[in-house]
Amino acid sequence: MTASPAIDASLLTQAASSADASAEALHLRAAQAGDMAAFEWIVRQHEERLFTFCCRWLRCVEDAREVCQDAFVRAWQALPEFEGRAKLSTWLYQIALNLCRDRAKSRVSRQRDSTTKIDDLEQPLPCPQGTPDANAEWNSEMQKLERGLALLPEKLRTALMLTAMEGLSHEECATVLNCSVRGIEGRIYRARQMLLRWWDEEGQ
């Protein structure tokens, strides 16, 4: 009996995911032994998502770029002690989030007039292909979402970003934020309710 295309696609996806995990495990072990080329491979696999997360969290491109670079420096320094209790990506998000928090605290006292804000980017987030009017509307909606997220309490905003935007599971998010899964579920629920109320008020 010939397998259905859907089953074949599922098996291919699982095989690709397993191969990616195996490749990362090999490069991780090499990097922990001091192989810089292996660590550079790890950086290439994660830098885009980590930078996007930092941009969304800090809403400042220059700060996000520096924090992302610092996160990988910290990761390289701490890599020998990484025991693999959490996924490597989860561990990297944890490092980046701590640095984002530190940067947000320190920049309060600094003048940022010359800084490029995330709202000033021509295309702050990936935009689907479409008509100019549709793309303009999509960008407008994304900028509105960014403003709404910025108004949420930090704990609620971060939980929603990590799960809804970065694709982390509730368990992975709980590891990053050092709280229970039930706590994450509560934060996400409250964040969504607050964001929906704000969205509706903005539309009036």
In short:
The chain contains 8 helices and no strands.
Report on this structure.
74% of the residues lie in helices and 0% in strands. With 204 residues, it is mainly alpha-helical. The chain has two domains: 19-108, Rna Polymerase Sigma Factor, Chain: A; 133-204, Orthogonal Bundle (Arc Repressor Mutant, subunit A). Helix 2 (36-58) packs antiparallel against helix 3, helix 3 (61-78) crosses helix 4 and helix 6 packs across helix 8 (181-202). The N and C termini lie far apart (58 Å). 21% of the residues are buried.
Rg over CA atoms: 19 Å
Low-confidence stretches: 121-130
Mean pLDDT: 81
Shape: globular
- Helix share of residues? over 70%
Distance between the termini: 58 Å
Share in β-strands: under 5%
Overall structural class, as computed from helix and strand content, comes to: mainly alpha
Largest sheet, in brief, is:
none
How many DSSP-defined strands?
0
CATH class designation of the largest domain = Mainly Alpha
Briefly note the CATH topology name of the largest domain: Rna Polymerase Sigma Factor, Chain: A
Number of helices: 8
CATH superfamily of the largest domain: RNA polymerase sigma factor, region 2, helix turn helix motif
- The succession of helices and strands, N to C, reads HHHHHHHH
CATH architecture of the largest domain: Orthogonal Bundle
